[in-house]
Design brief:
Length: 319
């Protein structure tokens, strides 16, 4: 049993590493086939041919693509993400505080969204097909239908412009007091929460309802157990595996999908950093941020797979 479980976990980790390698190839290839000349975009239209040739040589743009890829990959594996073309700053040192800001924002959005989604999902199942279930499902559908930029601007209009409870720009800095930082991220965290809450709630409800159709649930009902007891003791524990997958997928979105929300609130995180350098055609920054986002997404999905295997013995024996 232990060896089988260890083999399954090792397979998931190996597959995750292989997938990340494939994604790194796609990221590098995607940035190389972009139209235009990187050297010309850096020096501007007034650059002389000699200056362009010198910069291409300095950046290694004259080397074959496969040589540049393995040079970049070797740097990534040793912790060297390269140098930003626009600012000449080390990308790894510039990304550090921005990655922390993004994780801080995603963490507090998850602290609110995950338990709230599970509670609302349980309530929807307990009172299914009733007014409570229809109200929760209706609000979830409305929230899912609205794009995050619309939710963000709506929150700014209501709570920053009209009520003036929170700032419209989420400016944070090193050494900022905790309560001030929490006030600054209140609106972007709320926008992220509303974006992922509906999906997690609907999937939690669906997972538990699927389990409720099992024979042992009917047996529990015949024994006279109350609906909440059945859900708490039997349905929810057996629906944990798919719920974990849904939660992890949405946690990955909270970190990877923050780009739009960070831009709306001018929050100094990874998404804002990426957008700033995409406009400058700063290829090394785009590659580094894209690879970090991919690593986070693949890593959280891998953790979800492993957690599902641990909590559901049936997944260890698929046959």
């Amino acid at each position: 049993m232990g060896t089988s479980l260890a083999n399954l976990v090792a397979q998931r980790i190996a597959f995750g590493i292989l997938l990340l390698f494939a994604v790194s190839v796609l990221i590098f290839a995607g940035t190389q086939i972009l139209p235009g000349d990187v050297a010309a975009s850096i020096l501007g239209q007034s650059a002389t041919p000699q200056a362009l040739a010198n910069l291409r040589e300095e950046l290694g743009l004259n080397d074959p693509a496969i040589v540049r890829y393995f040079h970049w990959l070797g740097g990534v594996l040793t912790g060297d993400l390269g140098t930003a073309l626009s600012s000449r700053q080390d990308i790894a040192s510039s990304l550090g505080p921005r990655l922390w800001n993004t994780l801080f924002l995603a963490f507090w959005a998850a602290v609110v969204a995950v338990p709230l989604a599970i509670i609302l999902g349980l309530l929807a199942v307990r009172y299914r097909n009733g007014p409570v279930d229809k109200t929760i499902s209706g609000l979830a559908l409305a929230s899912t239908s609205l794009p995050e930029f619309f939710i963000g601007y709506l929150l700014v209009f209501l709570f920053a412009v009209k009520l003036q409870w929170f700032p419209s720009l989420s400016t944070v800095y090193d050494g900022m007091p905790f309560l001030e930082r929490m006030k600054a991220i209140a609106l972007p965290a709320s926008a992220l929460t509303l974006v992922v809450l509906a999906h997690m709630m609907r999937m939690t409800r669906a997972a538990i309802l699927n389990v409720m159709q099992s024979a042992y649930i009917e047996t529990a009902e015949l024994k006279g157990l109350k609906p909440l007891q059945i859900i708490r003791r039997h349905a929810f524990p057996n629906a944990v595996a798919p719920i974990i997958n849904v939660v992890m997928l949405n946690l990955a979105f909270l970190i990877v999908g923050v780009v739009v929300v960070e831009v709306i609130f001018v929050y100094p995180g990874m998404g804002q950093y990426l957008v700033d350098h995409v406009s400058k055609r700063d290829v090394p920054v785009v590659q580094a941020v894209g690879l970090i986002f991919a690593a986070v997404y693949i890593g959280l999905n891998m953790i979800a797979d492993i957690a599902a295997i641990l909590v559901n013995p049936r997944l260890r024996h698929p046959k």
